Amino acid sequence: MPTDFLAPFSLSVIDSDTYYFLNLKQVSFMRSYKPTTTGSVTGRPKYYAEFDSDSFIIAPTPDSNYTFELHYFYRPASLTAAGDSGSTWLSTNAPIALLYACLTEAAIFLKMDPAEIATYDQRFESALARLKTLQKEQEHRVSIGTTKFVFLPPNVGRTTSTVKR
Which tens digits make up the pLDDT trace of 1-33? Predict the structure, then answer.
């Protein structure tokens, strides 16, 4: 699993340049999966579950070598991990929301007047609403069938690997 993995968004099998998306199930389903009472338990995978913090379990057992593509929610880099650039996704794409979130928290910490805290909070909520509107507009622009996903913050990673039997 990727080191920044938080949760799965989708997992697909790539077979002859065709993407087959697997259904997310519970580990208990995966352990008891049998496609038919007399059939084989191998084939192109249809289901997956997060087995533990380091691996997935898939069913049925792959009948050949397949390439898998995982889209996942990831832990964004820390605000202090920006390095020498000094910029993060928030500071680049949402500076007003970041500003008013910080001002709200600072005003609360400094025990400022509740009316002033409310003003900062209202401005933060307004900036956040604008970001959500922007996100919805961007999502509508994404073509069906692409692997681009837009979230706030952009927290979908992508990794591709080949699983051998």
Answer: 788 788 888 899 988 889 999 999 998 888 887
- Read off the DSSP letter of residue 22: P
The reply to whether 145 falls in a domain is: no
In a domain, 146, yes or no: no
Asked if omega into 2 is within 30° of 0 (cis), the reply is no
Using CB atoms within 10 A of its CB, is residue 42 exposed (0-12), middle (13-18) or buried (19+)? middle
Report the mean per-residue pLDDT for the chain. 77
Q: Is 71 exposed, middle or buried (0-12, 13-18, 19+ CB in 10 A)?
A: middle
- Asked if residue 125 belongs to a domain, the reply is yes
Structurally, how many domains does the chain consist of?
Answer: 2
pTM score, two decimals? 0.53
Domain limits at 85? 79-140
d(C-alpha 88, C-alpha 91), whole Å:
5
CA distance 35 to 154: 37
Q: Decide which of 58 and 154 is more confident.
A: 58
| Residue at token pair 């999966």 | 33
1/98 Cα distance (integer angstroms):
31
Do 61 and 108 fall into the same domain? no
